[in-house]
Amino acid sequence: ARAARIQVQLSDDGHAFREVYRHTGAAFGGVTDNKPLTVDLKGQAGRFVRLTVPGKNRMHLDEVEVFAAADPQRNLALHQPADQCSLSTWSVAHTRVKDVDWAAATRETLSVCAKLNTEHAADAASAIQRLRGTLTALPAGQSAEPIFGEARRLQRQLALRNPLLRDFDTLLFTKRVPGSYNHMSDQYYGWWSKPGGGLYLLRGFTGDAPVEQCITADAFKEPGSFLRPTLSYDAKKVLFAWCRHYPHLAAEKNKLDKANVPEDAFYHLFELNLDGTGLRQLTRGKYDDFDGRYLPDGRIVFLSTRRGQALQVGRASAARTVTQPDMPDSYVRCGGGPERPVAVYTLHTINADGSDLFAISPFEMFEWTPEVAHDGSILYSRWDYVDRDNMPYMGLWSMRPDGTNAQLVYKNYTKAPHATFEPKPIPGSHKIVFTGSAHHAQTMGSLVLLDPRAGQEGSEPITRLTPEVVFPEIEGWPLTSYASPWPLSERSYLVAWGAEGMLVEGRPGWSRWHAVQRPRNGMALYHYDAATRTRELLWSDDA
């Protein structure tokens, strides 16, 4: 409606404009209804086109196209410069860009170098002293940036001497294009998936020339998406989820009707030898199955939408999903319509060969990111959305592998962070690391160290390992985020990190939020040192 009295003006020189069209006052659409405003200028000449609205008003347009009478198929405005004659408060960026104090950054980096040099028994003391001397002797007004670069290279060399990084020479990791819907629940539905990526091995990651190897290139020929792999206990096999990508599915208006969704468009569990051979599909049917983890007794725990609409769940309810591969799901109480059904997924188990499906959780709401604790129990996050506010209650729980003895670990009444996702037990410690994530976003945020012995609620049991990253949504929207922590100790973590900006629920065209799509290549692999609060890049892919 703000553009209902829009005017079109033309100019030959960019200074003197003449009005050639004034809209009647009727609101018009465009992207959503495929009925854009079309103005016939009847061949009038002009080099510049101006759009304006009268009075103190604001205008929001998705696209402007200009066509010449001589070539009505070619958009003359495409890739041409455009500017704004007047700006609203939302037309300019309000993020303040700070000048870098390169001298201070160099001093801080050399302090980290000195600490790492002592801890790792390195021989960098003379190099550190030389750089400090060079910095002290730097003439006034001359930038210390080149010295910082040299100091930073030294820090990297020292950090990668960490003995915990020398215990192994290969990393297993996933490349995955984030799904097209930014929400903690929707990120795990196959219809929002995007194609690209695979499972990879990275060898020699602490050296100067690491090498990656894709182990899924031969096994999967169709475009698809890979989710959260895990190694078998003997490190010979990898368990993961995969779905095929269908370009039209995200826009499908009735996803409730499973006849409109191909079976392989749902995530299913697969197992593969680390050499890329021996692919086995463990689950089937029109249900999303993902986040598989090997249990000590040989079974596999995973998340699945197979709980369906059964009043009581267990082996019988799970078995029905095998004989009836397209049964209806159960849905979150605040989800979307047929274009965005939000099916509830909970914990299930199967044998290593995919037999004996068992719904081990009777919980009526979502459960997330299971992981095996040191004592063999299952750590997971669950959404206590029963007779209470919907957002801040994704707490950390545990249960036995047979589904008994569900217990709170942390955060049934604590509001921040919103979600305790991706829990990982820390080697040689009773503590747990998790990602403090948001409600209206995909899994990423701030790294948190939890001491369960210190309590189950409040801030006392937790330590923010990355305090510069606010807890997303409940404290603000951070510009940088962590995800997928893999602890080597209470101090050292393999982790994904990226500067992706403020990413909230939805996708382009979704009107409630200023929705932004996650970039294809927003995150990379790092080693994070919680004591020095420094990251060292291990691997990234520009594509």
Task: Please explain how this structure is put together.
The structure is a single chain. The chain is mainly beta and 543 residues long. Helices cover 10% and strands 28% of the residues. It contains four helices and 28 strands. Strands 9-10-11-12 form a four-stranded antiparallel sheet, with no helix packed on it. Strands 13-14-15-16 form a four-stranded antiparallel sheet. Helix 1 runs antiparallel to helix 2. It is globular and about 80 Å long. The two termini are 40 Å apart.
Secondary structure tally: strands: 28
What class, by secondary structure content? mainly beta
Largest sheet: 4 strands, antiparallel
Cross-sheet strand order for the largest sheet: 9-10-11-12
Shape: globular
Mean pLDDT: 92
Instruction: Return residue spans where pLDDT drops below 50 for at least 5 consecutive residues.
Output: 507-515
In terms of DSSP E residues, the strand content is 25-35%
Number of helices: 4
Helix content: under 10%
Query: Distance between termini?
Result: 40 Å
Rg, rounded, reads: 27 Å
In short:
With 543 residues, this protein is mainly beta.
Please supply descriptive tags for the structure shown above.
four-stranded antiparallel sheet; 543 residues; 28 strands; mainly beta; 28% strand; 10% helix
